[in-house]
Amino acid sequence: ELTVLGKVREFFQICDLEGKGFVTCQDMQRLHPELPLSLEELEKVFVTLDADGNGSLTPKEFITGFSQFLLEQIALKNDMVQPSEGETAGPVRCEETMSGDEDEEFQFSNLMDRLGAKKVLDDESDVKQLWLQLRKEEPHLLSKFEEFLVRIFSQLQEADNEKNELECALKKKIAAYDEEIQHLYEEMEQQIKKEKEQFLLKDTERFQSYSQELECKLLSKEQELEQLVQKQKRLEHQCTQLLSGKEETKVENTKLKLTNQELLRDLERTSHELSLAQQQLQVLQEEASRLSEEKEMEVYRVTETLQREKS
User: Fold this and answer.
1) % of the chain beyond a pLDDT of 90
2) How far apart are CA 7 and CA 9, in angstroms?
């Protein structure tokens, strides 16, 4: 039964090549090369498994129902189960053998396999935790999150491919340089040996001079090779800087967006506080004007009183 369950999960992945998380009747036809069933029989199997009649099968419906169907077919072939009169050979709904956690685990594993995350991530726990949280609390954001993961892993895969291409090109160039210098050494050795044989007995001084000249040429070639190696290292360093600069630019853009949002919020808050301050200032000005008028009236009353007392 465990073997059949694992095989049925493979069948589900074959049907759901797009990673939709469900299987339609048309997707079911992809099992035709895998099973000794005709297209009409596969369609009947799909109709039998689609108990709610919504035209699609969830992983739980597919794996549970199809596992039962295959087990019945195996039992019939081995003559272990004799079908009673009037009983059909089609699949029968059984008890749910796949829990909700297994369904989520299967869908997340299927998503990570499609994204190729195992090649990029060493630990998927953080991504899985966020994916499960969105699935339970914010299911309408799950598709956007998965699209975001597709873009991120695509960019990471592109960066990894570029890195591998650069490494491959560097190895090829190094191998070519090694082969060239080895060939150069061999040519120079052959030439030196030949010249030694020709001139050793005739003119030792001239041979030594010419040998030194050849050694200078060899030294010059070695210096040229060293310059080429240094140039290659600089190119590799520039490529590494370009790749890291690309990632830093993305991070910087994200920080700038967040900073811009914070500045907008601060501007709105400041504008609101300024409006409140202007209102308070207006109230204070009105209060000061009222107090000034009251003071003038009081001075006037006191002056009148003094005038009367003086009179």
Assistant:
1) 1
2) 5
